[in-house]
Design a protein that fits this description.
Layout: H1 4-11, H2 39-47, H3 52-61, H4 64-68, E1 71-79, E2 85-89, H5 93-98, E3 105-108, E4 115-124, H6 131-138, E5 139-142, E6 146-150, E7 153-155, H7 156-162, E8 168-172, E9 175-177, H8 186-191, E10 199-203, H9 215-220, E11 230-236, H10 242-251, E12 256-261, H11 267-283, E13 288-291, H12 297-305, H13 320-324
Parallel strand pairs: 1-4, 4-5, 4-6, 6-8, 7-9, 8-10, 10-11, 11-12, 12-13
Antiparallel strand pairs: 1-2, 2-3
Length: 342
């Protein structure tokens, strides 16, 4: 049971219906065990493993523990675009993508007869209907270190569960709403992050009702961002207060900050951004970039030269600026966005 492939084969997850009670073992009935501890204590241990490693040791020791609490442990979970089907693996997600997922096992959550236990990364692709709800329903325990969700409808209560342990969070073009259908404000999204959050990357949709003139001021009051190492925003609207952005940049002096603004911001707002850009350049502070379509080329190069951009990400978000201005490359495609080391 120490390998993912063996677990998949043994539990017959593809062919059996969903069932979370005691299950017969392939090849014959289980032999009654004689424990040195009371049965109630053994049952408690089976139902409440302290960690995924402890659970794997238990099921390797005796199949009783898997029968009482069948769980499929995986390091990486990659939800596909065709409903509840997904890739699972113990390998690094980057390696899976580079190898066209040949190292992964394909499963269908609707046919899965065990609970799942994701220990590292979860990637959810475009418009997977009920995908997040199904993952939460099947999940035994979350230890997600890196969460990536692209272009999905997310219920805020579900998001709070998904990010409860995450050190890195990527949210691109998602609709994030309360159960009653109202839009969640951006500062409330940041407020629900774990105090362990190190990397946060977010792309706004065209509907930017989640931000207003008070958004950054509210973010400045949050107490859970003290460990934030990188903060990336894409398609920022011109409703964000420049004065508060300046205060944010000064407060998070050890955080890499990259702010990319939407192509439809006003000329007046661009002028205010230019004042902030001048302030950044004159202060000689590193790891600060403000990017917008049509900005001063030399100033942009200065900020870029001071920015430590060390890493890549599997996501590729269309850059409107590049489409509108062929030679206007700000040097910060999302493909070159750094990823926290998980």
């Amino acid at each position: 049971m120490d390998s993912l492939a063996h677990s998949v084969a043994s539990s017959k997850i593809v062919s059996t219906p969903v069932f979370y009670g005691k299950r017969p073992w392939p090849g014959g009935p289980s032999i009654q065990q004689k424990w040195s501890l009371p049965n109630s204590m053994i049952l408690y241990i089976a139902k409440n493993p302290s960690s995924s490693k402890v659970y794997q040791k238990l099921v390797q020791t005796c199949k009783f523990f898997f029968e009482k609490n069948p769980i499929l442990i995986m390091a990486n979970f990659d939800a596909l675009e065709n409903g509840t089907k997904c890739h699972i693996t113990h390998n690094e997600l980057r390696d899976c993508i580079d190898n066209n997922y040949e190292c992964c096992i394909n499963i269908d959550l609707n046919k899965l007869s065990t609970k799942i236990w994701i220990t590292r990364d979860i990637l959810i692709h475009t418009h997977i209907q009920n995908g997040i709800a199904t993952i939460l329903q099947k999940n035994f325990r979350f230890e997600i270190l890196c969460l990536c969700v692209y272009d999905n409808d997310i219920v805020f209560d579900d998001l709070k569960v998904l990010v409860s342990f995450a050190r890195s969070v990527y949210l691109f073009e998602n609709s994030i709403k309360y159960k009653n259908g109202t839009t969640v404000m951006f500062d409330k999204i940041l407020e629900c992050l774990s105090t362990n959050i190190e990397f946060f990357s977010f792309q706004f949709r065209k509907d930017v009702s989640m931000v207003n003139a008070s958004t950054i001021k509210n973010i400045l009051k949050l107490q859970n961002l003290e460990n934030l190492e990188s903060f990336y925003l894409y398609e920022c609207p011109d409703t964000l207060s420049i004065e508060d952005l300046s205060a944010f940049i000064k407060k998070f002096e050890y955080t890499k900050i990259f702010l990319h603004f939407a192509s439809n911001i006003s000329e007046e707002y661009k002028e205010q951004l230019d004042f902030l850009i001048d302030e950044i350049i004159e202060s000689d502070v590193p790891d600060r970039v403000i990017a917008y379509n049509g900005q001063d080329e030399e100033k942009r190069k200065i900020m870029k030269s001071r920015f430590d951009n060390n890493g890549t990400t599997p996501f590729n978000i269309p850059d409107e600026d590049a489409e509108n201005e062929e030679d206007d490359d700000d040097g910060f495609d999302v493909e070159n966005e750094p990823v926290a080391d998980n």
